[in-house]
Design goal:
One of its GO terms (cellular component) is cytoplasm. By secondary structure, the protein is α/β, with parallel strands linked by helices. It contains 19 helices and eight strands. Strand 6, helix 18 and strand 7 form a beta-alpha-beta unit.
Length: about 425
């Protein structure tokens, strides 16, 4: 076998072949014509050999060169690769930027990601549960809703109406930028559509608010990596650990196995609180009594890969954006996760307390600049929250809001819907 390949390799180096008499006239095309079928094991070699002796004129290279193309086996050679293409052959040639560094198991899960599409929200709740959720959301935003809707009762469409709307939007934590944007768009809509009734203006404002919040409405995508590594961040008291526990329960509805990493090694009883949520949801929690948060999360990523866990969520210690040394520690955690899995973390979520008003927008900007946020979880909309902060976020830093929370129960954490939120504010 070695001598067979050696025999046809020499003509490529310019030497005289053993059994080819046509090369005495300096012919070099014939060895190249033989060399191509030898590279491809699937190409039949036997039909090509009779062509060489059939071309008797030695001094006419053109007929010999074209004699290899019309041979009958040339047609089946093109159809053979098409009949049995290998599925993984073209994929490594053009890797998707998001998927660089995937393992073979992750390549196999790519069609699964396309099938799942936007899997959250998925199992839609029944009518009673949905109605209960909407009522709790409206109750949480009742203060803002009453102040906004009361303006349109028996009102005239004049400058006083716009001034009252401006005050109500500013009080609802919408911020100056979002307030000016909504009022300017509302004035233009009233002029263009020639609205004359106050309730028509209210509906126009609702439509503009839905359009403003629509970019924030995005579903969390599952199945695009194994494990899907999620890094949860936020300030102290925002509800990170509780949100992780609720989110773990939510993911289990989609047959996702979950592993939690207790990366909050600073707050007292943070590890115990996460362990309680793990026991409640029958989810494994990896933790250490003391140690580096990055080391704990690094080990958790390795364990999730070894156990073929679907989703791994890492809790982190709460910190203020002004604590630069702690923010740098979060960057370190992100870098360590990338060492454990090249394309991780796949999601970097910030948990914000809706009661903090415009300070929540400052947190979003600071954490996004430091870590590159992929999504938000807005909590405590059932308290004294005014809700307008989402309009400010949509206007200045439109990062997707995956979930909003209106209570302490597991079912109180639900996917964000722009229309439902607008209805709760202006319903």
């Amino acid at each position: 076998m070695f001598s067979f390949f050696k025999r046809f390799k020499k003509p490529a180096e310019g030497e005289t072949p053993v059994d080819n008499a046509a090369d005495e006239a300096g012919e070099q095309e014939a060895p190249e014509a033989f060399e191509e079928p030898l590279r491809h094991a699937s190409t039949p070699v036997t039909p090509a050999q009779p062509v060489e002796p059939a071309s008797e004129p030695v001094n006419e290279p053109a007929p010999l060169k074209h004699a290899t193309t019309p041979v009958t086996p040339a047609q089946p050679v093109e159809e053979a690769p098409q009949a049995a293409p290998k599925p993984a052959e073209p994929q490594p040639a053009e890797p998707k930027p998001y998927w660089q560094g995937r393992t073979p198991s992750q390549w196999q899960r790519e069609p699964l990601a396309e099938e799942l599409d936007e899997v959250i929200p998925a199992p839609s709740p029944d009518a009673a549960a949905k109605k209960s959720w909407i009522s709790r959301l409206k109750h949480g935003l009742s203060k803002t809703s009453s102040s906004l809707t009361g303006i349109f009762v028996g009102a005239k469409i004049d400058e006083d109406l716009y001034e009252e709307l401006e005050t109500a939007l500013l009080v609802s934590d919408a911020g100056v930028d979002a307030t000016e944007f909504l009022l300017e768009a509302l004035r233009e809509k009233v002029r263009a559509e020639r609205l004359t009734d106050a309730m028509q203006v209210k509906n126009a404002l609702r439509s503009l608010l839905v359009d403003l919040l629509a970019p924030l409405e995005k579903s969390l995508m599952l199945g695009r990596a194994q494990p899907l590594v999620m890094m949860i961040t936020g300030v102290n008291g925002a509800g990170k650990t509780t949100s992780i526990g609720k989110l773990a329960k939510h993911l289990q509805r989609f047959d996702q196995s979950v592993l939690l990493a207790a990366g909050d090694t600073f707050r007292a009883a943070a590890r115990e609180q996460l362990t309680v949520w793990g026991e409640r949801n029958n989810v494994t929690v990896m933790s250490q009594e003391s140690g580096d948060a990055a080391a704990v999360i690094f080990d958790a990523v390795g364990a999730a890969r070894a156990r073929k866990i679907d989703v791994m969520m890492a809790d982190t210690a709460g910190r203020l954006p002004t604590q630069l040394h702690l923010m740098e520690e979060l960057r370190k955690v992100r870098r360590v996760i990338a060492k454990a899995m090249p394309d991780a973390p796949h999601e970097v979520l910030l948990v914000i307390d809706a009661n903090t008003g415009q300070n929540a927008l400052a947190q979003v900007k600071a954490f996004d600049d430091a870590l590159g946020l992929t999504g938000l979880i807005v909590t405590k909309l059932d308290g004294t929250a005014k809700g307008g902060i989402l309009a400010a976020i949509a206007r200045q830093r439109p990062i997707p809001v995956y979930f909003i929370g209106v209570g302490e129960k597991v079912e109180d954490l639900q996917p964000f819907s722009a229309e439902e939120f607008a209805d709760a504010l202006l319903g």
